[in-house]
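User: For a benchmark we're assembling, each entry needs the component sequences followed by a predicted structure for the full assembly. Here are entry 17's components. Please fill in the structure.
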Amino acid sequence: MATTNDGASAASPLAPAWLPVPGDPDRLEPVLWAAGVDRDASGELTVQGIAASALAEQFGTPLLVIDEDDFRARARAFRDGFDAAFRELCGGADVYYAGKSFLTVSTARWAAEEGLRVDTASGGELAIALRAGVDPAHIGLHGNNKSDAELRRALEVGVGRIIVDSVDELTHLAALAEAAGRTAPVMLRLTPGVHAHTHDFIATAHEDQKFGLSLAPSVQDADGNAAGRSPAAVAVETALAAPGVELLGVHCHIGSQIFEADGFGLAAERVLAFLAEVKERHGVELGELDLGGGHGIAYTAVDSPRPAAEIAHALAADVQRAVERLGLACPRISLEPGRAISGPAGLTLYTVGVTKTVDADAPDGGTASRRYVAVDGGMSDNPRPVLYDADYTAVSARRTSEAEPVLSRVVGKHCESGDIVVRDVYLPADLGRGDLLAVPATGAYTHVMSSNYNALPRPAVVAVREGAARVIIRRETEDDLFAREADPHNEETRA
Ligand SMILES: *Cc1c(COP(=O)(O)O)cnc(C)c1O
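Assistant: Structure for entry 17:
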């Protein structure tokens, strides 16, 4: 790589514009890492003082390492930040940990111990929350197509809220509840036409997506609803008339990786205006408003998330203005952060295997080299780069290096050329076989989306608390790969 006259390495023409050449590729940017992550005197990455190489040796790689204290601190920051911001205005706020981001018995328990409630999105997630001992009254059940078995179980165990996604589901749930002699506690999921779009949001009138009940009046008769009324209005009327339903309030979720409060604020305004219409038409003030999740985190150094308390205060100001203008009592506010709690608490440790440098055509018409660094996992333990083109970053974990930073692509070991772990990152030129790489912010949507593609056993998950590491999900074994096989030779072929 060329060196500029001030001694800094020049950018590769293959690098995306947002990626600067780091002065020190071994530096741990605080925004990216769990609070317990640091480097020791020798330069090795540590988690609450435990060396990366010790974790790798004891538990193997790939390894998902969760800083449990960091997870708990982020959960408390949401609970305290939102409760304080909304205490005077609406009597406080309830924080539901969005389990789908990283749900295990352990993580559900941590959330509950820190005073959070837990959102689930399937019967399986509900089972995990119940197994963790979460009070059913503090569990929400989501899903756009819940099965009868899922709805019956939710009614039976007494979940605190079922977030209903359609008029179809509402009438079906009402019938199931009546048949079971129970009352379904219902939140209606509305689509306010506000969508998170990277660092911005976009506002639309109509909703062409599978989730929720639109606030916009229908232009045609659909699902038996008269044209000119919104699906949301029809759902409220249906819910208020159904004997098996207790309508608690309304819900909206505007997307993910949201960095500013204004998108949440606009959604809240639209939904509060709808609640004012409900009050006028039915004489009912619904008591709950859930503003969903989607609070952004830093995956690379260009992301700058705001503290939960800051989002909470900005949002509370918007809500206050809206309820005063509309003449409403403030409903109780709830929210559903997932990745903002579980994401930054996690990091993945990989062992480096093959490295190779290839020539690539650069956008400037020339040729430039790209270094490929292959690790012992990939899309099976983190499918987000493949699914969403998600960006991550990485650092050398076992050691620091004086070698110059070179543009690198960290790839997995799967039979897919798209099997990318980190698309673009500058790593020390001497990184090679046997080195450890750490990828930050991998707590959310990795373990829960992992697969056995290429028959790779899924990694272990280790939690570090008060300087001690313990396995919360063991690594899969070769036997696990055969556990569901009906092959009659299965038993014989096991060692
Ligand atoms: C996915 C989801 C969340 C959590 O989203 P994050 O981006 O992890 O905060 C919350 N609520 C609903 C309804 C969701 O679908």
